[in-house]
């Protein structure tokens, strides 16, 4: 399973757990790493320096980095960035907020840095395009009968 799928699944399950108030898998068998994942999912917009993440997991930075990578299949920084983008996409589709407001809410210091990260992860700009369905492929135009194609016309 790709790292993005893992993050998305953890986010969905975390949201479902909050709605159902029942324990649900968070994406990690290690309870210390699961605690870190839960904390990040609860507050993706918070400041999350490596030392704080390690402290939430109750371990040293080196041990945290090794165990997180083993459990989540990605680095803590990459996980945090993906969680923030997913949370941002959710806010863009569910709330009437500007890209700038969403960027601040999910932990980005500028709209442009959020937009670059969003475009890199999602493949499109966050400026409202996330709230709309993907564009339809262009229709193929058929040329009218009896009329030559442009390349066949005389100059």
Automatic annotation (TrEMBL):
Residues of the HTH araC/xylS-type domain: 34-132
PROSITE patterns tied to this protein: HTH_ARAC_FAMILY_1, HTH_ARAC_FAMILY_2
Domain of life: Bacteria
Region: Disordered, residue numbers: 117-155
Pfam families tied to this protein: HTH_18 (PF12833)
Biased composition (Basic and acidic residues): 143-155
Keywords: DNA-binding, Signal, Transcription, Transcription regulation
InterPro entries according to UniProt: Homeodomain-like_sf, HTH_AraC, HTH_AraC-typ_CS
Signal peptide: 1-18
Annotated protein name in UniProt: HTH araC/xylS-type domain-containing protein
Organismal lineage: Bacteria, Bacillati, Actinomycetota, Actinomycetes, Micrococcales
């Amino acid at each position: 399973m790709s790292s993005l799928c893992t993050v998305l699944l953890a986010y969905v399950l975390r949201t479902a757990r909050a709605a159902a108030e029942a324990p649900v898998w968070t994406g990690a068998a290690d309870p210390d790493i699961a605690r870190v994942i839960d904390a990040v999912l609860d507050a993706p917009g918070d400041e999350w320096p490596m030392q704080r993440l390690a402290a939430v997991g109750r371990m040293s930075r080196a041990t945290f980095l090794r165990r997180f990578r083993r459990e989540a299949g990605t680095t803590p920084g990459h996980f945090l960035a993906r969680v923030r983008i997913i949370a941002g996409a959710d806010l863009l589709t569910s709330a009437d907020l500007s890209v700038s407001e969403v960027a601040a809410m999910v932990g980005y210091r500028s709209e442009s840095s959020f937009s670059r990260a969003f475009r890199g992860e999602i493949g499109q700009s966050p400026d409202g395009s996330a709230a709309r369905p993907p564009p339809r492929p262009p229709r193929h135009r058929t040329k009218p009968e009896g009329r030559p194609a442009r390349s066949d016309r005389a100059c």
